[in-house]
Amino acid sequence: MRANLRFTTVLAAAILAFGAPAASAARLAAGTPQGDYLTHTEADKIRDAESPNERITLFLDFAADRLQRFNRELHMKDTGPRRADFLNSLMDAFDSCVNEASSRIDNAVSNGHDVRDGIKDMEKRGAVFMTELEKIKSEKLDLREYRDALDDAMADLRDDIRDAKKEERRLNFNAPRHPHEREGRD
Q1: Which of 44, 53, 73, 139 has its CA 20 to 30 A from that of 114?
Q2: Which of 129, 119, 130, 127 has its CA nearest to residue 166?
Q3: Which residue ranges form the domains of the chain, and what is each CATH number?
Q4: What pTM value is reported for the model?
Q5: What does the H/E/C string look like for the chain?
Q6: Is the Cβ–Cβ distance between 126 and 164 less than 8 Å?
Q7: How far from the centroid of its chain's Cα atoms is residue 172's Cα?
């Protein structure tokens, strides 16, 4: 009886030790992001996307949604007691979505995928996002509630746009030559 209990305890410990990392690895392999900034429906869309370009675009769509919701909440007349928490949460979610799109670009390029469409989308929408964030920062509103989250999002967005351009250069540098070109000729 005691040996049976010991076996069960060892078995439970092994499942906890090896099962959790295996589940995390399976989730990452399936393309599901970690974090609570996505809804279940959005996570399903990411998982169902067939290409890295689609996933990048989806993350940028989700970022645009968070930014739009932030703007809407920011300009509401009636504010609740947890408004600052909600604004910070939305800005952090925006930042996380853009960061995830940037990470997907880096991973895709590292794995040899052509994500030029995703990079172009990041550069184009990143510029639009930056304009929106700068507009928010310049408005005559009380920034105390969300200044840190806004500053972090702006700094991260600058880095993500810069990283996308770097990955685009890397992708273009590693692009195969035209099949009719001979080596050694310019």
Answers
A1: 44
A2: 119
A3: 37-172 (1.20.120)
A4: 0.74
A5: CHHHHHHHHHHHHHHHHHHHHHHHHHHHHCCCCCCCCCCHHHHHHHHHCCCHHHHHHHHHHHHHHHHHHHHHHHCCCCCCCCHHHHHHHHHHHHHHHHHHHHHHHHHHHHCCCCCHHHHHHHHHHHHHHHHHHHHHHHCCCCCCCCHHHHHHHHHHHHHHHHHHHHHHHHHHHCCCCCCCCCCCCC
A6: yes
A7: 23
At position 71, the amino acid (one-letter code) is N
Rounded-to-integer distance, Cα 48 and Cα 87, Å: 29
pLDDT tens by residue, 140-164: 777 788 889 999 999 999 999 999 9
Q: Which two tokens stand for residue 136?
A: 């928010």
Nearest alpha carbon to residue 132 among 54, 55, 65, 42 = 65
- Nearest one of 125, 158, 140, 129 to 70, comparing CA atoms: 129
